[in-house]
Amino acid sequence: MKNPIAVRVDDLTVAYNYKPVLWDIDLEIPEGVLMAIVGPNGAGKSTLIKSILGIIKPIAGSISIYDKPYKKQRELVAYVPQKGSVDWDFPTTAQDVVLMGTYGDLGWIKRPGSKEKKLALEALEKVGMLAFKNRQISQLSGGQQQRIFLARALVQNASIYFMDEPFQGVDASTEIAIINILKELRKSGKTVVVVHHDLQTVPEYFDWVTFLNVKKIATGPVKDIFNDDNLTKTYGINYKVAINK
Amino acid sequence: MNFSEYFSLLFSDYTLRTISLGTALLGAICGMLGSFAVLRKQSLLGDAISHAALPGIALAFLITGAKDSNVLLLGALVSGLIGTFWIRSMVTKTHLKSDTALGLVLSLFFGFGMLLLTFIQKQPNANQAGLDKYLFGQAATLIEKDVQILLLVTTASLFILLLFWKEFKILLFDVEYANTLGFNTKFLDILITFLIVLAIVLGLQTVGVVLMSAMLLAPAAAARQWTNKLSVMVGLAAIFGAFSGVMGTAISASQNNLSTGPVIVLIAGCFVFISFVFSHKRGLLLREYKFRQNRRELHHNKTLLFMYEIAKDHKNIEHPHAIKILNNFYGFTVKTLKQLETKEFILISGQNWSLTKKGYYQATTMFMQNEIKNDNTTN
Fold it and tell me: Which residues of A touch B39 (CB under 8 A)?
């Protein structure tokens, strides 16, 4: 890959209380890849993303987005948190949640206007949720809520997208809709990093993969490194998986 | 004094007008800020803060020896903020969950406050009387200066809420996301918590330490039932709160010896009860009605489908059949048949029923939908 490095992580170590969650991670994510981060529960996948986004303060290490610290590159980055991380009974509508994606560009105090509303509607359309724009968010299904979160990130019109388990608890049609959007993003030159759980679909959905289990096991193109050796190193000795060739 | 007398006095009597205005403002600010506390799942924080304010009142009195309410409330503000700070650092720095931290701070500060109160009461000078009004509140002690401060704080809070509306909304819904967008969530968090502490402290004189949290939560909980929009919820909560304040004052002024604080809280409680039962969006009555309606529809559909199965093999679909043949079908009742008849899906003549064209069409559509569903699940 001759592409520039979109995200660079150097010697990252994160700990909650005393137990290290991430240990001395070095990671380079080239521009324009669709990358899965895989690993067992508690491997630190979400923590890695949150550290890159500055939500969690690491003990040591540095992170850069296109060779500058995250704080200076915010507008280049969009984030889709885990669906379960918010209270969906919050009194607001689907369109309103998507509008939150424009808040970053707006900055403090300024309110979203007609331009922002138009962007939100476009994003809703992209994820097939335009008909639900005025729906109270608690009345959306899990898959629809996930689409709303995706639309909110799309509104940010970023270069790099971080997504925390976007396929969790969604049905097959939503999964296909989401992966098609992700592939489109990659096609237009964006970088997409996804915390992923379903190993079976890794070769089909992604072109890059990072194996993570507190330490970084391996990272690279799926076709080169998605093999039994790395899976065993990541998940334990008896791990067997059928890799679609 | 009865109600109508109260309302005529409201405009002529200076004291009553001051007190009513004060309780209305208090209700409004508590409803407004309480909405944020409820949505942040910090309902109990209010309770802890108000109890934590008590030692501040006592200490302020001990240090200054003055009974000026502003000095005492300043003490309450300081110790309320210290309590809040303790709760927050306990949650972030130890393994304790927030309910434990809240409970600890609440009882420790309240205990210390009570200790100081009894100590003050044992003092020889006569000046000490009346501090215990902060336990249950005494609206009658509100004077114009208090109302002016209430008005000032309410206006300021409203201004801050409107100014940072978008920021507060995203803070409430998704803190981490707000963080990635570059908003200083710590600042916003401290700002909204400070406003909540301020509202609580201002309410202590009227409603008291013990009941203050109800003032904060009840209007917000009631308002949540009527709307799915944050702005409407905050507005409604403010109105409910203000109304509870005025009504509470009216009732306690018309009946002798009813203390105002508890009455205000009870009125607010009535709002909650009514909202829980009668809300057109989330009310219990509505839920029960929808549940019954669904069940009835299910009955209708099952019966109609069964009839369709019988009728579809006949050339003339409107051919009459005996009601008896429905007997081996579990779900049918005379009531169901009657309701199907009023919907014009079937005709009943004597002991026979027959499908109408409309009923046949309805059943066919349902049948087709079932088939499609079955196909989808087998594939």
Answer: 87, 90-91
The separation between the first and the last C-alpha atoms of chain A, rounded to the nearest angstrom, is 22
Per-residue model confidence as pLDDT tens digits over A60-87: 999 999 999 988 999 999 999 999 999 9
Which among B167, B183, B169, B177 has a CA at the least distance from the CA of A53?
B177
Nearest to B173 among A90, A106, A138 (CB): A90
For the stretch B77-109, pLDDT in tens is: 999 999 999 998 998 888 888 889 999 999 999
Size of interface A-B (CB pairs under 8 A): 77
Name the residue facing B173 among A50, A54, A92 (closest C-beta): A92
- 10-residue block means of pLDDT along chain B (379 residues)? 70 84 95 94 89 93 84 92 92 86 94 92 70 84 90 96 96 94 94 94 90 93 94 96 93 81 93 92 87 84 80 77 70 74 81 82 78 55
Contacts of range B76-81, beta carbons closer than 8 Å, 24 or more positions apart: B76/B134, B76/B201, B76/B204, B77/B53, B77/B197, B77/B198, B77/B201, B79/B52, B79/B53, B79/B54, B79/B55, B79/B109, B80/B49, B80/B50, B80/B52, B80/B53, B80/B56, B80/B197, B80/B200, B80/B201, B81/B194, B81/B197
* Distance of residue A109 Cα from the nearest chain B Cα, in angstroms: 6
- A19: enclosing H helix or E strand: strand A19-30
Question: Would you call B180 and A109 a contact, using CB atoms and an 8 Å cutoff?
Answer: no
Q: What domains appear along chain B, each with residue ranges and CATH number? A: 3-279 (1.10.3470.10), 286-370 (1.10.10)
Longest alpha-carbon distance in chain A: 56
pTM: 0.86
Beta strand A34-38 pairing with B346-349: unpaired
CB contact (8 A) between residue B166 and residue A103: yes
